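Notes to self after the call with IL:
- keep both proteins in one doc
- input above output, always
- annotate only the second one for now

Protein 1:
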Amino acid sequence: MIEISRITIEADKRGGRPCIRGLRISVSDVLSMLAENMSEAEILEDFPELEAEDIHACFLYAALRANGH
């Protein structure tokens, strides 16, 4: 099960943008990498602090936002 709680919003990090688990990696950073055809494996290799579940949570967060949640 994907945990949306992996996405955090803190006013003092990345200008209050949604980030992953309090890290300075934003949801939009991950989605941009995916849009640029980076694979999940490449992202995880470049950012070892991330987990596959973090990427999946970004998709869920984006889907919820697109549907007005």
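Protein 2 (the one to annotate):
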Amino acid sequence: MPIVQVVAARRLFERGVMVRDGSAMERLVDVDAVMFDKTGTLTLGRPRLVNAAEIAPDMLTIAAALGAQSRHPLSQAIAQTANGCVTVADLDDVTESPGFGIEGRAAGSIWRLGRAGWALGQDDEAGDGQRSGTILARDGRECAAFRFEDVLRPGAAQAIQSLERAGRSVEMLSGDTEAACRDVAASLGIRRYAAALLPSAKVARIAEMATAGHKALMVGDGLNDAPALGAAHVSMAPATAADIGRNVADFVFLHDSLEAVPLAIDVSERAGKLIRENIALAIVYNMIAVPIAILGYVTPLIAAIAMSSSSLLVIANALRLLRTRETASAAPRAHVSAMNRYAGGSAA
């Protein structure tokens, strides 16, 4: 079993997937449902603000000052649009509420950038506030609304098709607006999705799946996804994920393509098959060899050769994993150096 797991981990790493927990490959084989976050997972997480011209310059300045203090992709998109025209000193007492947004004080007012219901001081626990989307609010009054567009992650559609062909259900769990989720779901052929979810709601959905007897793989990247990644049967995150997301995830894929998900499942299934084959080989070998040894027909030399041969047999069987075909496309060679840098950073 250990030699198969080592070979499987090497195979995945060569294809751009880092295994952080060896037991995760065993759990991955049991997965029958895959839950995806949207922003940064099904999309590249590099949204672009498309209505900057409609926003007053002073409001964009305040929003950028807040957004610069958050790693959330939407906040970063606002900050980049303003092109560094503000500094941290413009705001005091800046705090971030995961799943909601970021808050700061300036000139005696409280400014909030994030989920509309939260920014306006509404009860948005259920994600059904009167307003949706990302807004900037001052003392509970809306000052600006922001619209974004993002690019689908390479291989997303192919990955989802592969998972569904293998009999696994696919669902999208997102904190984004209904309209944004509907567009992405339609583009990728995802039939089930939930929008405007808080981190706790994602965890609740995974717990609901577990109660129904399903074992879910959660794929997410953000700070908001960390609780769901920890609650899932097995989890995966891109290398661009927030630090806490990468630390919680069982697998980290180091290139942009989402085909890393079906690839990891495929390699894990083949590893499980090879482990069963090795156990069967060991049983058959011992059923033949042990009685012969008991009858005294085995000299020490023959025993040493036989023992070494049995080890070589299971190792050779495990190495077959390096030569088998794969269902997912190869990771571009250009990403190898990035993989090595990430591995070095993790070790440090």
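Annotation: The longest helix spans residues 260-294. Residues 125-129, 326-348 have pLDDT under 50 and may be disordered.
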